[in-house]
Records
---
Amino acid sequence: MSEWLSGWMLSLQGQPHWLGLAIFLAALTECLAIAGLLVPGTVLLFALAVLAGSGVLELWQTLLLAWLGGLCGDLLSYLLGRRQHQQIRNLPYLREHPQWLRAAEQYFQRYGVLSLLIGRFIGPLRPLLPMVAGMFDMPFLRFLLVSLLAAAGWSVAYLLPGWATGAALRLPLPEGFWPQLAGVAAGLGLLIALAVHGSLREQRQVTRLAAGLSLLLVLGLLLGWRQLGALDQGLFDLLQTARSARLDQWMVLLTAIGDRQVQTLAGLLLVLLLLLGRQRRAALFAATSLLSSALAVSLLKRLLERPRPAVLLESLGSFSLPSGHSAAAFALFLVLGVLAGRGQPGRWRVTWLLLAGMPALLVALSRVYLGVHWPTDILAGALLAGGLCAGSLWLVQRHSPLPALPARVWYGLLPVALLLAVYSLWGLPAALALYRY
């Protein structure tokens, strides 16, 4: 069986159309009710993405096909639940494992729409939640809008690593690239492992530990960026291979989210909304995290004076370490992730932080893609924001934990998010002209 699968995978390498169809069907199966529990779709998608990244398909094509496949899997699962309702319990495998469906029902009833976003990244729940949404007669339009967003984030999280691996294997990478990558990955892995382990075990000192280790890694990058030239050049060249006219426009839109004007407005509105909701400690945490990140970036850029890989216009500035876009995006989204996880068990706090980090990571990667930052620039910005955010949280929670925010505060964030989206789109034509080579 394994030999047949290996031969089939190799045959796809020279046939982009069949490879694209395979990615679509694998994504559909991974998100399809019941089938997604039985087929090792995650492993298969990674292998197919590696083949696509080896020069067969462009990045935007790979992500688009996976997004469409995942969306179709969601819709089919929803329609199955909407049509069968309680008869779903008699289907094969679900009849033998009723705990699968019971867990998905409890999760959906507790979190509603949010369960479709968060559960998308939890393997056993992913193929069942759309079906459960249909069973509970969730309005189709609401389900479709949420699924469009969830499938997009899922396709990036699951396909991008594989595509990047395939692209890296075919590039003539600089000497020393892999040892440098291993060293940096080991530091990041240690940070993430300790933070997740401490959160799951409800250890109060985990916040202070995460802050200290993050800032220690930032110090290592600030002192050793000259010795990480092979890593920077290799990853920079890797992202440049993904350039395309279609993807450029999306990346410019992403990078606009991290612009100083947008982030300043977002921070002010967030703090104001928390103060109006009488959440003074939460407002203090948000203001301290955002302001300290912005000030630290400005100070470090002036001290280090690291040149950009390619200065497109004078307005971009001449120094790049650490990345202001990366720091601002991670500071804002991590603050939102922390606030969303208040009052919940450790596993949900970790999930919220991971979800919050995804849009920030996309903003950071857009800077390298557009050729205005080195990879260590955005990594330093992300770690700096994470360390200062964790430090601010520790200071605010020294005597008692932050309480969960009331629902009225979260409802107030929706118009704020829409306002920021409109504000970002308003400046999109100018941004496209700025980043066009």
---
Amino acid sequence: MRKISCLLIAVSALYLASCEKSGFSYEDVTTENGAGYILLDTFSVDVKTIQLDSVPSSGLGVILNGYYNDPLFGKITAGSFFEMTMPSVRSIENNMVYDSVELILRGNGYYYGDTTVPLNISVYQLTQNIKLADNSSSLYTHNSFATASSPLGTKQTYLRPLEKDTVSIRLADTKGREIWDLFAAKANEVSGDAQWLDYFKGLAIKTGTTNVIYGYDASTAVMRIHYHINSLERGTNYFEFPLSNTAYQFNNVQADRTGTPIAALNTTNNSIPADQLDNAAYIQGLTGVVTRLDLPSIKKLQELGRFGKIVSATLVVQPVRNTYIRANMPSKTTLVEADTKQNRGDTLTGSSTGGYQYGDFTYDALYNENTSYTYDLTSYCNAELAADNITTRGLLMMPTYFDFHTRFDRLVIGNKVNAKNKMTFKIYYLLYK
């Protein structure tokens, strides 16, 4: 046994010399059952901030509205477009009298920004029908459709997002009475769904000066016409126009990054290395900003010898101190395989559970120093060892699918040489006799 151990130590020493020539260094070397386990933590990780070409935002059941000036990610503006359908029952009798019309939105609990300031909401009627582009199945954050120049209604209000407050915006009575009269006359404009959409193409929600963005539940959004009945027992009633065709409800998002660290990032200049951003990389859902990670030195493991295997590979990513608060950072982030053109493939799963990885999230509320996301890259790294130039894949770090397409959660993460919060990547490599 002593002879075998000495042999292994000698072999490990030879590998050490070889690794130093290849750019590796070891933290630790041990032997077990005739094999050497080597801990490698000096692998390079290429880290870049990437701007994706487009972000789908339709059919997700979320209405967004507001404006927020984020010092790191820029001036973010969000608005929403959607169609309304006619009430299922809309017969108007002689004793029915029009009262008012309003749009009602119920909060979904989401916010981004400063909830102590008032929210300004403006509602506009569309003058252009919502349509999908040719060969497209989605509407995107860059899409927009023409509206009337003047709003149908405006409102300034304070919201309690965690209470999921309801917002009621009184709309112009001229429009409400116009719709009422069309129903009363059984006019062609309200004779069917197609005729209705030709007349009333939909609504757009836009924002004025504010510093917060709120989310609303699209499934509960309604336009409501109130009326009363002339009788001895006077009561209040209404017709409801619910949101229709959920695939055509989408959020328009604009990001002005002037004066921010990522001001140069756009769909033309869509990749900035971390070393040009003070050794940091950026992530934000809905504005299409993700972080790309590439591990080009994985192939060098083959230089350690013919018989070896990655036993464990762990990536720990830390947000840079003083760039985040708990309310605006994602608690779940995924790593998605992507080719060189950012075409996305599989989301990484765990080697032991087989389920999707969301980053084993730790939040340091006390010192703001040890917040981290931890990932198991064992299966990914073993696949990369066998990959060629065509099949090799990098990783995009981003929030989960739904959150990425409906929220502005964001991160600034450090690379391996960041002075405040470093990314760490460690591999345990098994060398056989």
---
Amino acid sequence: MNHPLASLSRATPVLVQGASGRMGRRHMLLMRDYGTRIVAGTSAREAGGSIEGIPLFAGCAEAVAATGAIASVCMVPPLEVLAAATEAIAAGIRLIVTIAEGVPVHDAVRLRGLARAQGAIWLGASTPGCAIPGQVKLGFLPDVALRPGPVALLTKSGTLSYEVGYRLAGIGLGQSLWIGVGGDAVKGTRFAELLPVLAASAATEAVVLIGEVGGTEEEEFAAALSRAPLGRPVLVLLAGREAKEGVAMGHAGALTYGGMGSLASKAASLATAGVEVCGSMQALVDRCAALLGRRG
């Protein structure tokens, strides 16, 4: 399968945009320490220099031409995401991970359309990143929660996914892949669009999805799963049980109005698609252990 996420591996050449900033520098080196093949960074201020042996370029075009990078982790503020990601796509980058939360809605809409038109995959906004544990991570997923294994972990929330990943790893259940779609209302990749990646993953024995109130993304996933079942168990944890109508709870996309985006509507749609909706994080971990033959 020629999908950038399906082909992600330790061999994938990656560049970091905003590499000379405090967060860019820190996480670029942490990603490299994990095993990610970081081949370049971009920095208008420090172009021509390097950071611990990683060359810095003025822009993506120069970086891609010199290194062959095909994925980018974009470590820039929200108002700069559209320009940075547009530059990456124009340079031929096929997978763009944008960390910043609160990208303006109009910018996100434009970027999503551009990425689709150019055949690129955008993860974000407000994503902790993605990983093939034991091989590569893009973003700031914590190493202690990453372990190779049979569970595909899809999530809107970074923090909740860290805890779920950590607990699963503690009972010997690691991840075949880990994809954060992000918590903003408008994003580049939605849960339903990842079904082909899951279907193509031979290492995946079960799928864990961490959703939340707000929007219709989980309902879309349920509908897509009904049309194209994976043939593997799918477990879901929905955050925001106590969310109040009309109030954004944490993420910009976690906003409910009436029955739209409510926990009840999501749980009903998922159950109809044959998905197990778990009432707590520990119930999710215990059910995973039972399904996959692990015990704490």
